[in-house]
Amino acid sequence: MTVVSTVLPLLTALAVAVGATALHRRVRPQLAATLLTGGILGVAVAVVPTLVVLAVGFLVHLPLVGGGLEWCRAVLGFHASVNPWLGALATGMLLVGTVRIIRSIRAWRRHRCVEIGAPALVTSDDWFAYSLPGPGRRIAVSSGLVDALDGQELEVVLAHERGHARHRHDRQLLAAELAACLVPPLEWLRRRLRFALERWADEEAVQATGGDRERVALTLAKVALGPSEAPRTVAAFNGLGVAARVEALLRPQPLRHEGLWTSTIGLGVVAVAMAAAVQAHHVVALLVTLCPG
Questions:
Q1: Which of 17, 179, 207, 239 is 20 to 30 A away from residue 192, measured at CA?
Q2: Which residues of 94-111 are buried (b: 16+ CB within 10 A; e: fewer)?
């Protein structure tokens, strides 16, 4: 096994990320969110095993550590030393990524809700509304936002958040968050996934208001002007890309060649999965060796 074959899945994954970024606005938000989620998970599946293989290949050749990991050399097939800079970078990314994952999971658990109930009113002067992660599908709304909006505007906000809660967008956000913790360049795709999910919920609000796209757009613009702060791990009404979302609501673009774009991104995700298989059997062999029982 060569370093080139080890890095190949990573390079393939980056190519798919660039393609997904370029095409995600040319399909429906629901489809864009699905394809971006698949792309993010595919990239993570390709890159993380690559990092593991490079890190172990680097560690087994260190004078003070390698002696205790000699068996890994045989399992992974590393007979030549990994480039020290590349191996150290992979090892550092895994260590830092693990710490970031622990922090993200703790933050997610703080907001997770399993109890089903009416929207929760939070006493705060900030303007925010977001769906809480978890099976409870509850919504949190600030008292400041409730006081600032009229009845129709508040219904738009609640319809938007119900869309997030009904489709459990929190699971896609969590998966993307954890993937970006291990592979920082995925933050690029995570933000685009978040935008697609917000656009999806915007369209849910349009349907709930009888197709009144202007009302949804004006409500979104109004809320964006107020003082707002929402947790990173939740889907908030005015969380990302407000200007682009307002434009998409007021001037929706016709969807052309959607099937072509879908096939293109889908084939890219498959290519990442196939590239990841180059390293997957090494990782499986490593686990079998570690846990022979």
A1: 207
A2: beebeebbeebbebbeeb
User: pLDDT digits over 231-284, tens only?
Assistant: 666 777 766 778 888 988 988 766 666 666 667 666 766 766 666 666 555 555
Instruction: Please indicate, yes or no, whether the overall pTM of this predicted structure exceeds 0.90.
Output: no
Q: Is 122 helix (H, G, I), strand (E, B) or coil?
A: strand
Ordered DSSP codes for 24-88: GGGS-HHHHHHHHHHHHHHHHHHHHHHHHHHHHHHHTTSTTTGGGGHHHHHHHT--SPPPHHHHH
Cβ–Cβ < 8 Å for 156, 10: no
Q: What does the radius of gyration of the chain's CA atoms come to, in whole angstroms? A: 22
Contact in structure between 288 and 59 (CB atoms under 8 Å): no
**Cα dist from 102 to 53, 95, 176, 233, whole Å:** 22, 11, 14, 13
How far from chain centre, in Å, is Cα 201?
A: 16
